[in-house]
Amino acid sequence: MLSRLLPRRHHRRLLQTVLRAGAAPEVDLHQRLCSSSAASSPSLSIWRRKKEMGKEGLMAVAQLKRLAALPPAGAHPRLEQFMRSHVSRLLRTDLLAVLAELLRQDHVILSMKIYGVVRKEIWYRPDMYFYRDMLYMLARNKKIDDTRQVWADLKSEDVLFDQHTYGDIVRAFCDAGLIDLAMEIYEDMRSSPDPPLSLPFRVILKGLVPYPELREKIKQDFLELFPDMIVYDPPDTLSDVDEEFKF
């Protein structure tokens, strides 16, 4: 019927247009899935590769720390000038090594600055392990606002943590006493498309021992998902331990 109403060349163009329109959502979905899987792949992660710092990187770390100490802390004009003139010119390996060293030293201000530089580089790709280590450092230093910024960034890049990494991050924030953030990340873990695993729940439950009400809630979630498993409840007091082992 279509071939009778339209000339052959118009018929061909119309079919090509319809096929392209129908395939577009599938292509877009495929690209999003590939992007998320690449961000979570150890083999594709530049952040997990060995980070050896060269001479330029060592000099950059020393100068960054010196300039960051100038008042106002972390906002001195000379620090900003050094970021533009030297840090932005570092090779990829040196830049990543500088960030890794600043994370190790728990230097929050400089870590956040280098984090911003890395994300603007042409070679940058979303990386689960990159964001994981940033969140670990921010949890150790109890930085709520910076954590929310980093979390918003990783969400905008469709980064998806695996279940084990989710459990470790939630535990890190529990250990730091940032329970509200820990529970927000836990809820994100529950909505993840990955199938739940028992070990991350056990890691979280252990971190929630000082918070019995929250622990009970997570425990119920665990038992609903894994009804055949048992959760060990720690004793309320040391006297309970003595009674348990009393002969």
UniProtKB/TrEMBL annotation:
Organism domain of life: Eukaryota
PROSITE patterns: PPR
Gene3D superfamilies: Tetratricopeptide repeat domain
UniProt keyword terms in alphabetical order: Repeat, Transit peptide
First and last residues of every PPR repeat: 162-196
Family annotation (InterPro entries): PPR_rpt, THA8L-like, TPR-like_helical_dom_sf
Stored PANTHER family: OS03G0297700 PROTEIN, PROTEIN THYLAKOID ASSEMBLY 8-LIKE, CHLOROPLASTIC
Protein name: Pentatricopeptide repeat-containing protein
Protein's organism: Sorghum bicolor (Sorghum)
